[in-house]
What we know:
By secondary structure, the protein is mainly α. The protein contains four helices and no strands. The protein is globular, with a radius of gyration of 15 Å.
Amino acid sequence: MSNLNEDIRDKILEWVSYADDDLIMAKHGLTIEIGNPYKLIAFHAQQCVEKYLKAYLIHRKIDFPFTHDISQLLELCLKVTDMVEEIMDARKLTIYASTLRYPGIDRIVSKSEAISAVDIAIRVRDVVRRSLLEDGIELNE
């Protein structure tokens, strides 16, 4: 364990826990065979990515705005690490943050888009967790 302030470590662990819960929901959604809510699967994948990036920013003591914009969060991360280079495609998940959760938006999320969103979330999770571990932050599996 690094010499992280206990409060910061607890915040990181809390954000990671919430992110992992979103990923669990997204993965479970893919197992639903009838009436599959692909837009909600994509939403939970986006939320997983957003929360993992925010956990990393907390670790690096970088303030971030209240935003669901993955591009903005990735840009903040790029200021202190190049680990995000391999997850830049996560930017395309921003659309799933809110616009698809409310009526009136004529955008359908396909099964392949939902699967891709979950795959990206898994990759972001792996990259951020590896980076946190390299910095001495132990995370529960």
